Amino acid sequence: MKAPDINNPIPNYKAFVMNGTDMLPTINEGDFVVADLIQTFVISGDLYVVNYKKSIVVCRLLLDGEKVTLIFDGAEHTFDEWLKNITIIGRIIEVKKIAE
Question: Of 8, 23, 39, 95, whose CB count within 10 A is highest?
Answer without folding.
Answer: 23
